[in-house]
Design brief:
This protein is an all-alpha fold and about 80 residues long. The protein has five helices and no strands. It has one domain. The model has no long low-confidence stretch (mean pLDDT about 80).
């Protein structure tokens, strides 16, 4: 495995800001940098919200995800 040399943090930040300003312009780059981070939801609360969306029927779920016919339809 080759040794990899990383750019130091100051150079990395400078390059990234320059790319943002060149691609987006100074106003949009500033807006991007000032965007608030979304607050992370605690994992148990997130799981409860996910489960609360209703019961998923296994056959319907697999049909939608894998686009396969149900076993009953295959047997016919």
């Amino acid at each position: 495995m080759k040794a990899r040399i990383f750019t130091d943090e100051k150079q990395l930040i400078t390059k990234a800001v320059n790319v943002l300003v060149n691609e987006l312009g100074p106003v949009e780059a500033s807006r991007f940098l000032a965007l608030p981070k979304k607050k992370r939801i605690e994992s148990v609360k997130r799981h409860r919200q996910w489960r609360g969306q209703g019961q998923i029927q296994q056959a319907e779920f697999f049909d939608r995800v894998f686009r396969v016919r149900s076993r009953a339809a295959i047997r016919k």
